[in-house]
Sequence to fold (762 residues):
Amino acid sequence: MARLTLPPSSPSQVSLPPDKFSAIKTANYTQIPTWVSLRSNSSSLKNPQLQQGRLENVHLVSLSKQGKLKEAHRFLEEMDEAGVSVSPRSYESLLETSGKLRSLSYGKLIHDRLRTTVENPPGFLESRVLQMYCDCGSFWDARKLFDEMRVISMASWVIIISAFAREGLLKDALKLFSQMQNMGIEASPSIYISLLSSLLDSSYLELGKQLHCHVIKSGFYDNVSMDTAITNMYVKCGCLDIAELAFNRMNEKNAVTWTGLMVGYTKAEKQEHAIKLFCSMVKEGVELDEFVFSITLKACAGLKDLEMGRQVHGYIMKLGLEYEVTVGTPLVDFYVKCRSMESACRAFERISEPNDVSWSAIISGYSQIGEFDDCIKIFNSLRSKGVVLNDFIYTSIFQACSVLADLNLGSQAHGDAIKRGLVSYLYGESALITMYAKCGRLDYAYKVFESIDEPDTVAWTAIIAGCACHGTASEALSLFRQMRACGVRPNTVTFIALFTACSHSGLITEAKQYLESMSSEYGVHPIIDHYDCMVDTYSRAGQLEEALELIRTMPFKPDAMSWKSLLGGCLIHRDFKIGEIAAERLLELDPEDTAAYVLMFNLHASSGHWEEAARYRRMMAERDLRKEVSCSWVSINGKVHRFIVGDRHHPQTEEIYSKLQEFKFTRTSNENSFLTEDDASLGLLERKEQLLDHSEKLAIAFGLISTPNNAPIVVFKNLRACKDCHDFAKYVSKVTGRQVVVRDSNRFHHFKSGECSCGDYW
DNA sequence: CTAGGGTTAG
Fold:
């Protein structure tokens, strides 16, 4: 008899891919036999009748539970040589592990071994093999095995139908279901549950009703799981009223049943109803679990009802569930949505084992309150700690990079996400399009867009918005037509992007047509933002009467944005009469809006009405309002250099200012010299005469001296570009032959040979 | 031996 060598007790040499370690973590280590004792008295070999290979099989199962399939396979071969037979229990475990680890190759090896070495395998092993193929996602193998089965157990029917249903292969699942019926086999509740729960939206309602009829005819009474599945089918198909009926008819309900209905109401934006259900649960004494709190907190978050959420939080603490990640994470999100970042952080710290979802919730929290630097900080620390990152996190990071205009970090994170295989999700890709577009690389944005096989509404919207902010309106409109041709439906945001493109290029007729047809032709009902865009389009184009008329006749009460857009137009086109109206209305709606004061100041100052101008400055001072300090920055070799007006802090200040002097740039038309936002931010009226040290010019000058002669210069600015700096950039591009790109708070300006892509229209 | 529920984002 061959000698049986047992494996060394050192850690296994089998290396599993890192993402499969979870299986090892969940392994039951109590199953590990002490193989030292196995080795010392390998009595089973000496006395086969006594042990019948029991210990070897225990060891085999142990290896399998630890996910050590390679080692298990080696051990199997040794058992063969030793003539020790493999127990059905071992086969069962090996098949289960192969499935869990989605290791088709080992699964197949076990299946082959079972076929060739065991003459009449017990029926349950056959269905275990089937399960393994389904778990590995190899439906072809599963189907082949199934078709070859001589006797099909109910378990096998359940396994294959539920696998097909879960995988979205509904047609195949239904075919098998009717095959069962034709064979006179009655489907079990599990089969109905699988089929019902694969019906994800209202397009399956008819099918769902038919299945419901089958269930009734089959006479299954009071099966909580199945009745829950029926209720949830109606929920997912959008029939909340029917779902509620089905729910009320149930004699016995559990937490799962309640949760399903609450999800439905929350999705339908009827959060109050969901919370009412939660209260009933408490009243009726239903045993609550973590999932109930997840959805309850989501409902509170949707309502931004801080009081309600706090009460729920108290209840959670009473039950000691705040440490659970399934409760703690939605709790974090709830506080984030209620703008209570401090509480969110506290809730986060209580989670005993935060997962990637918890991290994405807290990162998106920082992103939502505008603390983008914090987002990046957390991201970097997670990256270095090797925490699992998901596509949600990357989406937030790309968003942060768009706002910070940090192309460097953005493209690094992009590469990182590719390595982790997280980019293939549309959400992430759309965020990438926006990130590249807002970092000034419309070309990369296009590349990402073109790499998407079937762009969805959001992806199309992202690229259209990208074109809009770069001022390529005709491209935006053409993309919109292509989108329609591809059968993708535009949504509210798509139209905002489209209108933005029109307003930046003065396409009044087009904008008007879209506004009139969006509801009838595209099924998107205009909201006030769309009208505000139209007001903006008219205003920029100088059609101020039309803009005012639209504000007065539109089906919404004008908001601050309506008047702000109009006021902006009045400034460009020097209309005091309408400007005054707009400013008054704007200040009524939002007395803290600094833009109103600055715009009115400029409007009067630009025509020499200094007293009127001063009145607005005084008002601003009295209300203790300050404009955000204007700031421009340029990134050189990954390092960001920031400038404010008159800045002399940069180590190369002398060089920068002498470069500026070189241009001897003088204003082209004196009448157009407004007091700019730069100046207004400092409150220095006398600045009017010396505009050479605006942050934007400093950044451009620094770009000129720090990059090769032919390199384009990309400058970012937190406020809108002023006319003077705009002229300066044009001049620089003409004299130096360099391409200058300026992103202001509104859009991109591409300067080339003395011309700007905005056509002086911004 | 199978089946029912939740949280993150553009």
Observations:
- The longest helix of chain A spans residues 508-522.
- The mean pLDDT of chain A is 84.
